[in-house]
Amino acid sequence: MNDPAPPGHLPRQADVSPPRPPRIILCPGPRELPRPVSARHHARRFVGALAAIIAIGTAILMLPWATESSHATDPIDALFTAVSAACVTGLVTVDTADHWSFLGELVILILIQIGGLGFMVGASLLLQILRREVGLRETLLMQDGAPTLTVREAIGLSRKIVRFTLLVEGIGAALLTARFALDMPFHVALWQGIFLAVSAFCNAGFDLQGEYVSLLPYQGSLWVNAVIMTLIQTGALSFIFFAELASRRRWSRLSLDSKLILIVNTLLLVVGALVFLGAEWERALADVPTWARFHTSLFQSVAARTAGFATVNVGDFQTVTLFVWVLLMGIGGASGSTAGGVKLTTVGVVAVAVTSTLRGQLEPQLFGRRLPIALVFRSIAIIVLFVAAHFIATLSLSLTEDWIAGAEVAFLDLMFEAMSALATVGVTTGITPALSDPGKLVLCVTMFFGRLGPLTAAFALQRRQARAAYRFPETSVRIG
Is residue 190 assigned to a domain? Predict the structure, then answer.
């Protein structure tokens, strides 16, 4: 047996094992989260993209090859057409079928499709961002203080909207082509069907009938009227609404947002049709067969809110009809749709607040749900800003036409034209081609603002909302 080494004895070299090399453990870096879609950056890019599209469209429409006469178009008329098409308005200073060649019509169609589809996708993404409930996952993806969507979610939603748009437009084009083929060669009917289907779904109001007659030649066609009205309503109520309607199916399961859209939209359609039928029975409907007056009135009510088509002469409208039409145009369609105006739910929220106040309720309530007071404030602010913009546009047109150009244009026609541009509707009493160049530029600015104004206002107002750290003492003032 070996004795243990005495204290202080150093072991031999053979007894000492060599030191092991240190192990290097590679830790993976933090996984990068999907880059979120920021609401602020999304809105800026959207505005910039729309302006760039308008500039490119204007440059192409100014070319001689874009016109039937092979002469270059006046820059202001080219700009006006490009803005009207990209903002899916439908106001024109030159007739689409008579002035533009196939190239020009194709450019206008592309502008309409990009403007309508692009706005629907962009607005839907932005509204989804603003609606997103903030949880743990959203907190990790927060940027600039606003809830965000991941790139994958944004792409998924965009693809669904594109498929929905192309499907509806394709069905509409096929149905319209089948009807137009009875009156014209098939290749002409096909182009007319495609152009009109895209224009109707995007609520643009452009047509290829010529001589500024809109859809007057098909006034008595139930087929064309029904297809166009369906396309207009489908585009004006948004993909988000129809997606929820398809998934939930029952009234009790629908969100308050969708219920408000259904209620306000149906109410406006019925009221508009009845007002038109009563006011225009002996005026604009005088030459329309009795059996066709009912669907003709419904068509005007549908088109008045955002589409811009007409199967009667708008210049023959009574004063009361023009005034009611200004209101209908200002309301428009649903949020996230191709429609303009302040939107159905905005008006619905204010109506609920007024009704609740008249009932003595301290907070707006509907269908067992309570609306946030901040939402009511934002809705009122959007409507007030929209009315102020309409006032400025009408005043500007009055200055350009009465003062600068010296033209005698009725004030109601100017007010009607300003609202048609601001709400991106496109219905006109016939004064658009005769406007002065400054007046056309005023309408260009109005159409651009009207396309982006309500959405931008909703985004800006929601982002400015912040929880206060303190509250001021409450006091009262005299009202009424």
Answer: yes
Q: How many domains does the chain have?
A: 1
Buried b (16+ CB within 10 A) or exposed e, 166-182: eebbebbbebbbebbbe
Q: How many angstroms from the chain centroid is the CA of residue 140?
A: 31
Tell me, what DSSP letter sits at residue 369? E
Residue 469 domain-assigned?
no
Q: How many whole angstroms separate alpha carbon 127 and alpha carbon 205?
A: 25
Residue 367 lies in a domain: yes
Q: Which residues form the domain of 64?
A: 36-464
Answer yes or no: is 14 within a domain: no
Please list the residues that pair with 370 across neighbouring strands: 365
Express each pLDDT in 19-65 by its tens digit: 565 555 555 555 544 444 445 555 677 778 888 999 999 999 999 99
DSSP calls for 184-246 = S-HHHHHHHHHHHHHHHHTT----SSSTT-TTGGGTT-HHHHHHHHHHHHHHHH-HHHHHHHH
- Which pTM was predicted? 0.83
Q: Between 222-237 and 239-248, two packed helices, what is the crossing angle to 10 degrees?
A: 90
Could you tell me the sign of the dihedral formed by the alpha carbons of 327, 268, 339, 124, in that order? Answer: positive
Side-chain half-sphere CA neighbours of 208 within 13 A:
23
- Rounding to the nearest 10 degrees, give the CA dihedral for residues 69, 73, 74, 77: 110
Cα three-residue angle 57-330-273, rounded to 5 degrees:
110
Backbone angles phi, psi at 423, to 5 degrees: -90, 5
Bridge partners for 149 per DSSP = 37
- Parts of the chain with a pLDDT under 70: 1-43, 122-151, 153-154, 454-470, 479-480
Contact (CB, 8 A) for 225 and 191: no
Helices 256-279 and 293-304, axial angle in degrees (round to 10) = 130
pLDDT (tens digit per residue) in 74-85 = 999 999 999 999
